[in-house]
Amino acid sequence: MIKSISIIEGDGIGPEVIKQTIKVLNSIAKKYGHKFHYKNLLAGSKAIEKFGDPMPEETINHCLKADAVLFGCIGDPKYDHNPKGMRPEDGLLKLRKKMNLYCNIRPISIFPKLDKSPIKKELLNNVDFIIYRELTGGVYFGEKGRYKNGDKAYDHCIYSKKEIEKIGEKAFKAALFRKKKVTLVDKANVLETSRLWREVIKKISLDYPSIDLDFLYIDNASMQIIMNPKKFDIILTDNMFGDILSEESSVLTSSLGLLPSASIGDDKSMFEPIHGSYPQAEGKNIANPLGCILSGSMMLEYFGMYREKNLLEEAVKDSIEKEICTPDIIDSKLSSTTEEVGDYIKKYIIHQ
Amino acid sequence: MIKSISIIEGDGIGPEVIKQTIKVLNSIAKKYGHKFHYKNLLAGSKAIEKFGDPMPEETINHCLKADAVLFGCIGDPKYDHNPKGMRPEDGLLKLRKKMNLYCNIRPISIFPKLDKSPIKKELLNNVDFIIYRELTGGVYFGEKGRYKNGDKAYDHCIYSKKEIEKIGEKAFKAALFRKKKVTLVDKANVLETSRLWREVIKKISLDYPSIDLDFLYIDNASMQIIMNPKKFDIILTDNMFGDILSEESSVLTSSLGLLPSASIGDDKSMFEPIHGSYPQAEGKNIANPLGCILSGSMMLEYFGMYREKNLLEEAVKDSIEKEICTPDIIDSKLSSTTEEVGDYIKKYIIHQ
Ligand SMILES: CC(C)[C@H](C(=O)O)[C@@H](O)C(=O)O
Ligand SMILES: CC(C)[C@H](C(=O)O)[C@@H](O)C(=O)O
């Protein structure tokens, strides 16, 4: 197959993790006879510096035309005080919206070999759930602003039935191929938007009689995810709650650096690690490339390349079994560099 | 001293934990020559059943006149689908608002004897922080509703400078007597209300040069609270984020049932355990009364009864050291009943 992939390296450790991911994807392409055409695009700090815009039109246009976007990470404390629309994060939000990537998929699974989680090991056996986070609505995209001379600020959270239906359908479909359970997380005892979520999701569940649907308030969920992580299968939730729960869930694994994500729309898609730009690690060859590499693996799955995806994930598992790991997930005296992890995975793929 | 205390037992395990708390408070009163006058008031399900209102005017009026309110817990799944304003939770929110209890204080500390936390023990030494949660503003109290025939729902989040200042001052003052650190948790990379929080809190910090102020995004905070709980002293945050973080933090201790809270206004106050009504445990004599008893201890402190508070907390610690504990925090084969825990603490106080 031939695929065109827009690449946004972004800020901080973005370029380093993307480099390893492309290396690995190329070894997959070679082995299976695919052609991946990459196009490097600017966004985040670098685009602010060059174009005065964290998400230039050119970048958006290329992303809209590509078969998929592979995204590193953006964010730079230097620009935190930029005016609205001019922060790196604004660029990311704009791209998600323009590409209509309403469904953000964040799988949480455990590598039993690793032991850097703050959670007691016996609680982590068989933890395997996926967060379906709504990504283009809610309080992230509602009107926001100031009044009374700037003394009052507001953020509006809005959801429509349609928005909830679209991601709801995707979540139930996913559950069919898994443990057949959907947990809707909301704050329906306080929020009207949450009550709409419950209504719509209950209605969808009637079409999926084999799926167990249950409900948790966000406060309770943030506790249950740590106390009983095994009990989850698909967690379905809104933009803000999904942001919180997915980063919180990283404590179950040994590092935020391990976690991939896919953002899907009706026909567009973007793949990005959950971790941020981690400026303190930039250029030190210590960043964990696995979150980005596993995002690449979600991209292969999206392309329908299942054997390819399986091989890539086997290679990642093997690198962890053999302790070819960056210092965030292993004793730093034994650790490998970002580059060495990428090389190991590439070699594994070639030699299988 | 003479104090009038409004009592709201509420739903589920509320009556049981309140009963033990009053027992313990009475032993304190007797020992130190105080008089506590209690007035039982209805709210939550029982008030819905009797008056068709989860927070009757009479209850509010008494609470406004009392020196303090001691609150059990409310909530009953039976009423989850009641119309707006008619759910037990609506009653609690109304009372907080009417009493102007804008500052909710939720201390998180560890009893080293206990080992039911899912977190590895070595991470928990010296964990001791307090969450200052804004309680009468934000998305909880902004306008909410439906339009487009109910197909769209909205919740407005609003904050004013004043609202942030009031709780901000209280948080900085508290830090002066502690580890001198305030962490503001927000989502300033996305929300305008969060940006107002940052502005106002930065400005307040200028008056407190001895206090270290730092900032965390809510997604990151929900991870850090588990990864590095020791590093926090005062966590200051808005209504919604405070709800989530405080319940999440309960995983550091061995049980949600242990956690007290105080809600303070300019001259009113209410004390309530963090746990909910836990209907499954109702009437079984297994509910942990310590969250409520420790809320009583925060009330004693609020009354300026410092020796009394210290003795009560010593008694609670002793009950845990001697393993007189409900089954949520100890091996259930060794556990005591709700009643037995209250009796033990009462006896300890009398005999000291
Ligand atoms: C950078 C930020 C705007 C973003 C978000 O909150 O969505 C990030 O935290 C994420 O989870 O992808
Ligand atoms: C019952 C509910 C409305 C309440 C809240 O969200 O404030 C509770 O979760 C709490 O934390 O006190």
Automatic annotation (TrEMBL), chains A, B:
GO terms for molecular function: 3-isopropylmalate dehydrogenase activity; metal ion binding. Keywords: Amino-acid biosynthesis, Branched-chain amino acid biosynthesis, Leucine biosynthesis, Magnesium, Manganese, Metal-binding, NAD, Oxidoreductase. Its cofactor is Mg(2+); Mn(2+). The keyword Lipoprotein does not apply. It is an enzyme of class 1 (oxidoreductase). The keyword Transferase does not apply. It holds the Pfam family Iso_dh. It comes from the Bacteria. GO terms for cellular component: cytosol. GO terms for biological process: L-leucine biosynthetic process. Gene3D superfamilies: Isopropylmalate Dehydrogenase. Its EC number is 1.1.1.85. Residues 4-345 form the Isopropylmalate dehydrogenase-like domain. Homodimer. Belongs to the isocitrate and isopropylmalate dehydrogenases family. LeuB type 1 subfamily. This is 3-isopropylmalate dehydrogenase. It comes from Blattabacterium cuenoti STAT.
